[in-house]
Amino acid sequence: MPGKVIFSKTVLAWYRKKSRKGLPWRETRDPYRIWISEAMLQQTQVATVIPYYRRFLDRFPTVQALSRAPVTDVLESWSGLGYYSRAKNLHACAQTIVREHAGRLPDEVDSLMKLSGIGRTTAGAIASIAYDRPAPVLDGNVQRVFSRYFGIREDPRRPAVQRRLWELAERLVPDKSPGDFNQALMDLGATVCAPRQPRCGLCPVSRGCRARRNGWQEEIPPPRAAVRRKKIQYLCGILEKNGSVLIARRPLSGLLPGLWEFPGGEKEPGETPAAGIRRLIAGRLGLRAQAAEPRAALTQILSHRELEIQLFIVRCRAGRLKLSWYTRARWVPKKELARVSFTAGMSKLAGQL
C-alpha cells in the first residue's frame, strides 16, 4: 500500500499534539478499565460516558468485583446509558474471565472475541491499547476516515465493503504504538472528519484524501435511511401510601431490563388509557383500582421505539401485592425517588412529581 508508513506516522504525530484531553480511560493501560470504556462508548457520546465511567469503576473497581455483583446492581449502574445488553454482557463476561482466565483479560484478539459481548473492534482496542498488539479497530469514526481517504463511496455496512475496510485497517496499523494509532483514528473521525461539515483544513492527511480531492466529503459515507421507530403508548401509575410511592422492577429480559419504574405497561389497541392502567394494575400487581386520574405525559425515544408515556394517580382498594410480571416491588419515600435507578422516562416523571 503506497504511503502506509507516511499515513501512520502523520496520524500519530497529529495525535500527540491534538488528542482529546480529559478522557479518563486515556490515563490507564489497565485492560479492565479500557474494556469498560469501550463497552460504554458503543453508541454513546463521550461527554455522556465520562461520569458513568467514573461511577461504574468506583462501584466495580476490578473484574472480580464486577463478577461478584448481582446483575441487577450492574444494570442499575448502567441506568440512563441505554443499550442494556451491554451491561448484561459485561457482567457475564466478567464471570467468564474470573472463572476461565484467572481474572485477567486475554491479550489476543481471537481469545477476546470468544468472550460475551466483545466484537472485533472492542477486541482490537483492548489488545492494542492495553497490550500493545498491532490489532486494528473499525468503529464508526474509523470507517468514515477510511471511506473518505480512500474514496470508498459504497455503504460501509455492506459485507464486501466491511471486508475491504478491515483489510485497510489491518494493513495500516503500525507495529509501534498501535494503541495510539487506533485512538488517533478515532479522534480524527470524532473531531475533524465529522459526519457533517468535516474540517478538512485541519486534517493531517487531507492532501492524500480522495474525497476531498473530488468534493465527495458530504457524500461519503452515503446517508442511512431514517429509522422508523415503533410507537408505543405506555401507561404507568402512582400509588401512594403514607408519603411513599410504589415502584416495581422490570424483568431481566426484554426492554429496559432490571430497571425500576412506576408500575404499568403498554396500552392495548382500542382501550382507553384509564381502562388500560386499571387492567395493568390488576394484572401485574393484583390490586383493584378505584380511580385513575391523568397527571403527566412525556415521550421517550429509544433506538427503535418511541414511548408515549402517560402517568396516572391511581387509588386502589386495600389489598396484598401479587406480582405476576415484575420481579420486585417496594415503597419509596418521595424524597428518595431521585436516587432510584429508573428508566430515563421514569426519571423525568419522578422529577415532575
Question: Secondary-structure blueprint of this entry?
Answer:
Blueprint (H helix, E strand, L loop, with lengths): L3 H15 L12 H11 L4 H14 L3 H6 L2 H8 L6 H16 L8 H4 L7 H12 L8 H10 L9 H14 L5 H14 L18 H5 L15 E9 L1 E2 L2 E6 L10 E2 L2 E3 L6 H13 L3 E13 L3 E12 L11 E6 L10 H9 L1
Parallel strand pairs: 1-7
Antiparallel strand pairs: 1-5, 2-3, 3-4, 3-8, 6-7
List the defining traits of the structure above.
353 residues, alpha+beta, Endonuclease III, domain 1, Nucleoside Triphosphate Pyrophosphohydrolase, 2 domains, four-stranded mixed sheet
Q: What is the overall pLDDT average?
A: 93
Can you tell me the CATH topology of the largest domain? Endonuclease III, domain 1
Q: Which sheet architecture does the biggest sheet show?
A: 4 strands, mixed
**Topology order in helix (H) and strand (E) letters:** HHHHHHHHHHHHEEEEEHEEEH
Helix content: 40-55%
Number of strands: 8
For the termini, the CA-CA separation is: 62 Å
Looking at the overall shape, the CATH architecture of the largest domain is Orthogonal Bundle
Helix/strand-derived category reads alpha+beta
Proportion of residues in β-strands: 15-25%
How many domains in all? 2
Supply the CATH class of the largest domain: Mainly Alpha
For the biggest β-sheet, the strand order reads: 5-1-7-6
Mind telling me the C-alpha Rg?
24 Å
CATH superfamily name of the largest domain?
Hypothetical protein, domain 2
Question: What do you see in this structure?
Answer:
It is a single chain. The protein has 353 residues and is α+β, with helices and mostly antiparallel strands. The protein has 2 domains: 4-219, Hypothetical protein, domain 2 (Endonuclease III, domain 1, Orthogonal Bundle); 230-352, Nucleoside Triphosphate Pyrophosphohydrolase. Helix content is 43%, strand content 15%. It contains 14 helices and 8 strands. The chain has helices spanning 4-18, 31-41, 46-59, 63-68, 71-78, 85-100, 109-112, 120-131, 140-149, 159-172, 178-191, 210-214, 273-285, 344-352; strands at 230-238, 240-241, 244-249, 260-261, 264-266, 289-301, 305-316, 328-333. The strands form 2 sheets. A 4-stranded mixed sheet has the order 5-1-7-6, with helices on both faces. Strands 2, 3, 4 and 8 form a 4-stranded antiparallel sheet that branches. Helix 1 crosses helix 11 (178-191) and helix 8 (120-131) packs across helix 11 (178-191).
